[in-house]
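[RESIDUES AND BACKBONE]
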Amino acid sequence: MIPDISNALDWLKYNPNIFKNISRGIERETLRINENGFMPKTDHPYSMGSALTHKWITTDFAEILLEFVTPKSNELNYSLSFLKDLHKFTYQKIKKELLWPFSLPYFIHPNSSVKIAKYGESNLGKIKTLYRKGLKNRYGDYMNIISGVHYNFSLPINFWKKWKNIKNVKNGKDIISAEYLKLIRNYHKFGWIIPYLFGASPAVYPSFIKNKNSDIKFKKSKNGLLYLPWSTSLRLSSIGYQNDSKKKLKINFNCLQKYTNSLRKATNTISEKFKKIGLKDNLGNLKQINTNLLQMENEFYTHIRPKQKIKNDEFLSDALEKRGIKYLEIRSLDLNPFSPIGIDKKQILFLDLFLIWCVLADAPKMNYSELEFYNKNWKIIALEGRKPNQKININNKYEKETLINISSKIFKNLYKIAEYLDQNSKNESYRKICKEFEMNFKHPELTYSSKILSEILKNGIKRTGLNLAKKYKKKFIKEKMNILNNKILCKESTFSHQKQKTIEKQDNLSFNEYLKKYNSC
């Protein structure tokens, strides 16, 4: 099951500096909450800027669901400091509100409704809001306010030049894209290691799954919490962020052209399920962009996605076809409740190591049924990954192996990669995190999910979450910014409002005409 990368390691031995300029970006989602822990009725604070056009601070599904976006950088400490500064600025603007430190909104008032994010009166803003109305009608409020961290990762051109003898990105885009797709296949096959180590959503508040048809047999704590004793990430389970477009379209990651064609097909194929929702309500208000399997390409949810920078109004599928895969978006990270920014340096260093291993290792093409076979391991890890002597599938459904055995083989390779990377940087950062995280397989109680479950079973989820939220707010209110400052951030907020107004003034189509044109593409 574990690919042999001995030749790649021999090659890496003589090219240890090729990963020096890994490019990274971080997108952290988080819910604003009241001091009592419930969802506030407030809109996205005006003083923070326009959610439509701000470069670094926006909203996701709801007015209360913030998203912080760091610019692309090959300096990890810069990215982390930038993200911290965005949090410091936000805490100044949200007044008495807090930022919920967990991925799942564990406690929800039974009568509360989620206010969908608003983006102004431009056609662009309106279609973004309508898209979210569609998400609400398709999947419900609560699934759409699940928070996570997206890690954007791209390998340096120096790597591609030596690994595949590519002279420049433009001419080598097809080869680079094929290599990134290979990485993605390996991630689907072995990426369950990420929720095992970093999953932090082993429990859920009952109201969160009130209207869900789930066959998961939860245990109930004394304070009414539903949990699974060996779970790592319910966020990645059937009660989490899911849609069934992959099953209907059988999307795989063998060929970029076929992948982009599948995305287009999904946005142009009517779903009988979503057709029943209808396009408009009894008052004539739009309920979704269309009744297709995907309203937009962004609605395709998966653990990892190929990405390319979007220019003007083009679709992602077109951008990928024209310019190839530029970077990967890793979407399987729960919020780290032990970090004030939802992720820490050790996690990113491990992600770097693991993703490098995924690109160095061979990955035969997989049809959809094979892809689904390996995705079953993700489900096992999400629900009972810390179970003693847990086994997962390898090669075929009749052959299984323990997590400890599989992980030890993977870590043997990761240690070698770490050794070469540390030689180049003249420290032992990568080897240290290898040693630390391998211990988590021998001692599951060291994982984030085990630690947070112990805490919330002891003190309750509300108390634990609020204590962490207040602790982090107090920390950031006291600290000074390192990369940014109030002048820069206030200037960006002002500019973002001006930019939104400019976009609104430039519209020359009615929204109905704009929507019709969008759906005809």
In short: The mean pLDDT is 93. The radius of gyration is 23 Å. Residues 6-520 form a domain with the Creatine Kinase; Chain A, domain 2 fold (CATH 3.30.590.20).
